[in-house]
Design a protein that fits this description.
7 strands, Cytochrome Bc1 Complex, Chain D, domain 2, 2 domains, 12 helices, 45% helix, two-stranded antiparallel sheet
Length: 259
């Protein structure tokens, strides 16, 4: 009961403080990397120490491995991902003509596998999908996030913004209440980051594993006691599209390391 009362008090205080929040100005944008301790930053910088690089290497091997009835590899169509995929992570989500809606990079990979290799695309946290996402995203490391200018994505980003600012769950908190209104402050001994998506898929020390943006967003929804959407639901892509626009200009860090 005491813990519940404390959470309710925190929620009420944060709502009061966040009432006038207007989001982040471009000059305010800070990657989560900047709020980490020096040891964790060093781990991300050093490819030999960054545990996410194990998934990158696994993705590199899978990229060149023939699969499915036609025994086709990703490399058969796309060649060297370090060249052909450079910039892909900085531009997604993008519009999928066949589906008539936006998809994130991870979903794009799953769709490509299903359409051209005739193999299951896999779940967002499946090893194949995570590893291939890490390999493709790594090709854009260091490039600035540049959301796709396709006008069809404007409505997607707007729906994502509304989701980001919508209060939800038993704690009645929104993403903006933490990551716009209270970034840089402390919660439970940790610094509240701005919540940018420029490092995914990333390795969280808390998870002891690589994880997708969907997993992190799902964790946040569980934290405010809200019911997460199903895997690959349109809402995840809408939030991802808004987060990409919100973090425009930040460098792609995949695979980032976070506490």
């Amino acid at each position: 009961m005491r813990r519940r009362a404390a959470l309710v008090l925190i929620a009420a205080t944060w709502l009061a403080e966040a009432a006038g929040a207007q989001g982040l100005a471009p000059e305010q944008r800070r990657s989560g990397f900047e709020s980490m301790g020096s040891a964790t930053q060093a781990m991300q910088r050093d490819d030999d120490a960054n545990p996410g690089m194990l998934s990158v290497r696994d993705g590199e091997a899978r990229w060149g491995r023939p699969e499915g009835p036609a025994a086709r590899a990703c490399a058969d169509c796309h060649g060297d991902a370090r060249l052909s995929m450079r910039g892909a992570a900085a531009r997604h989500p993008r519009w999928d003509e066949a589906l008539g809606r936006a998809v994130g990079l991870s979903q794009r990979i799953a769709l490509c596998r299903a359409r051209h290799q005739q193999v299951p695309g896999g779940a967002p946290e499946g090893v194949e999908r995570l590893s291939l996402s890490a390999w493709v995203a790594h090709a854009s490391r260091g490039l600035p996030v540049r959301p796709d200018p396709d006008l069809r994505l404007d409505a997607v980003r707007e729906r994502g913004r509304r989701l980001f600012e919508r209060r939800m769950g038993q704690l009645d908190l929104s993403c903006a209440d933490c990551h716009d209104a209270r970034w840089g402050r402390r919660l439970g001994g940790s610094t509240i980051p701005q919540g940018h998506a420029n490092g995914y898929p990333l390795y969280r020390l808390e998870w002891q594993a690589l994880g997708s943006l969907q997993r992190r967003l799902r964790n946040c929804m569980n934290g405010v006691r809200a019911q997460p959407w199903p895997a690959d639901a349109p809402e995840w892509v809408e939030l991802e599209a808004f987060l990409q626009a919100r973090g425009e200009g930040l460098p792609v860090e995949a695979p980032a390391v976070r506490p």
